[in-house]
Amino acid sequence: MIYFITAYLGEPHGSAKSARDVVRSLMETRHGLTVIAPKSEKSLSHGHRKKVRWIKFERTFRLARRIWNWKYYLVQDYFRFLRIKAQFRMSNKEDIVIVNGFGSIEYASNFLQSFNSIKVLICRESPRHFDESDRANLNRSLIKSMKLFDRYIFVSNKLRIEWCDKIGIERRNTFYLPNCCEEEVAIQLEKVGRQQVRMKLNLEKSKFIIVCPGSIEKRKGQDIVINHLKEILAIGANIELMFIGDPSTSYGLDLKNEIDNINCPRITTLGSSDSILEYIYCADLLLFPSRAEALPRTILEAMALNTPIVSSNVDGIPELIEHTKEGLLFNHDNPGKMVSQIRKVYEDKDYTRELVSFASDKYWREFARDNHKKRTKEIIENLV
Predict the structure, then answer these.
(1) How far, in Å, CA of 26 to CA of 3, rounded?
(2) Once rounded to an integer, what is the mean pLDDT over residues 311-326?
(3) What is the C-alpha to C-alpha distance for residues 274 and 323, in angstroms, rounded to an integer?
(4) How far apart are CA 276 and CA 244, in angstroms?
């Protein structure tokens, strides 16, 4: 039996979407599957040959919205908790528990001590995901939590090496499982066509749309774009810039307010959107200035959707984009280069078509869902 534990499933951010991908790939293995999450997504297994068991477990005492009848939910979750622990105590050497990312470790910690077999952590974060004060605590809290596990799955080969060196993991206890994306949506959008999608989103055909998606926070680097707004907008009179995402910190809220106060009709801020793939698809350019990423789904989505990419070159991003081949990269030490890369995409249409073609080919060759399923099967067979 495989137990997959995730603190998020189905939300619009990357870890939650990638959790759904892992569930879909685990369904293709020969082993039984139990998913433990705050909510169930039975539609994932609907009509599939394999029956997936879903256990909904919430940290009820943290849910202020349920304070009106907290006793009922607390008792309900407590008995679910006892049932999961009892199952884990009966686990045998062929059972596996897989925890989805650092953000799910605390959620899973109540169960892990009772599990008698292999514990696996999917590592979706870079050490630079954490701010400077958090990094000082890595050797205490985070590394201690990582030591609870026997094996590790990394979405980036570069970060696999870095984490192994940082906390002393043996490479033979690690695996590589890069992300994929929602290919079915990408294929459907291609059938509809860019101009039809633009009409649906009320975006003018004549505009050169730059989308900058991601939660608004320092790590995502929107401030770098703000600092170069004049230069970016000066590239062409028809350029419009869209920030898509919600503030995740007080810093992010201040930054969003700063963007809104610019009061420029060529700049738009949207909150988190279920239509994010539609915006990426009909954009003329994906701008991704992040300071820390493992293997970002947003770039994979742009590759599958044939959207040109200008991105920072941090962490695992060069594993997806080779500079001047599948997209254009810039270093944070020289953020002005970002502007010249945007200008290159804006002015050189033939070169941009080449970049897009190579990026699309690379996605379907190396990162497609079929590859994700195949790698997952190989990892599970190795673990058991």
Answers:
(1) 10
(2) 96
(3) 30
(4) 8
Is 80 exceeded by the pLDDT of residue 80? no
Tokens of 115: 């599990």
What does pTM read for this prediction? 0.87
pLDDT in tens, 202-230: 999 899 999 999 888 888 999 999 999 99
Please provide residue 293's backbone torsions phi and psi, each rounded to the nearest 5 degrees: -150, 155
End-to-end CA distance of the chain: 10
Q: Which residue has the higher pLDDT, 290 or 254?
A: 290
Mean of pLDDT values over 357-369: 97
DSSP 183-215: HHHHHHHHHH-HHHHHHHTT--TTSEEEEEES-
3-state class (DSSP) for residue 59: coil
Q: Do domains 2-180+368-383 and 183-367 have the same CATH topology?
A: yes
Torsion angles phi and psi, residue 244, rounded to 5: -120, 110
Report yes or no: 356 and 303 within 8 Å, Cβ to Cβ: no
Helix (H, G, I), strand (E, B) or coil at 145: helix
φ, ψ of residue 171 to 5 degrees: the values are -60, -30
CB 80 within 8 A of CB 102: no
Superfamily of domain 2-180+368-383: Glycogen Phosphorylase B; (3.40.50.2000)
**118: enclosing H helix or E strand:** strand 118-123
Instruction: Return the closest-CA partner of residue 212 out of 254, 268, 156, 264.
Output: 268
